[in-house]
Amino acid sequence: MKNPILLILLLILGSSSQAQTFKLYQTRNIHNQLRLNTKTGEVYQIQDDGLKFLVKSEITPESEKPNRYLLQKTDNIWTFILLDRFSGKIWQCQFSASKVDEILTVPINLKELSSTKTNRFSIQPLTSMYQFYLIDDETGEMWKFQWSTKGDNYRWIEKM
User: Fold this and answer.
1) Measuring CA to CA, which residue among 72, 77, 75, 78 is closest to residue 122?
2) Residue 105 domain-assigned?
3) Is the CB of residue 74 less than 8 Å from the CB of residue 97?
4) pTM exceeds 0.90, yes or no
5) Parent domain of 82
6) Max Cα-Cα span within the chain
7) 51-102 pLDDT per residue, tens
């Protein structure tokens, strides 16, 4: 009688681990990680000395769906791309090990490309370290976008 209950309990615990609210992303700086709240989009820089710094405040504070947001590494040691997998909105997130005022998040695309409540968008890197594809996995539509450390005029998105 105990074995079926144990099996059911293990199945429930196993399936709930797929819905991860917080995810740590290892950076190439061994002393720093980025902690993403996959429900709200909030990003913190976590240092191994115990300090933490806000990189991006919550985007959807009332969200109950985990895995809505993800961070994508770039070839730049300090830069990640934050993606809202529901809407297609994207931000450039930058952390710093030396200066707090260099920690920032800037928008690349704030236009909502979908209003569904499912994970619909993904991103793929291009040959240039600054450019990626934003892909609507349901329709196949694609956009090319670029991030930059040189300013807003160098950040853009265009439909393919």
Assistant:
1) 72
2) yes
3) no
4) no
5) 20-159
6) 66
7) 999 999 999 999 899 999 999 999 999 999 999 999 999 999 999 998 999 9
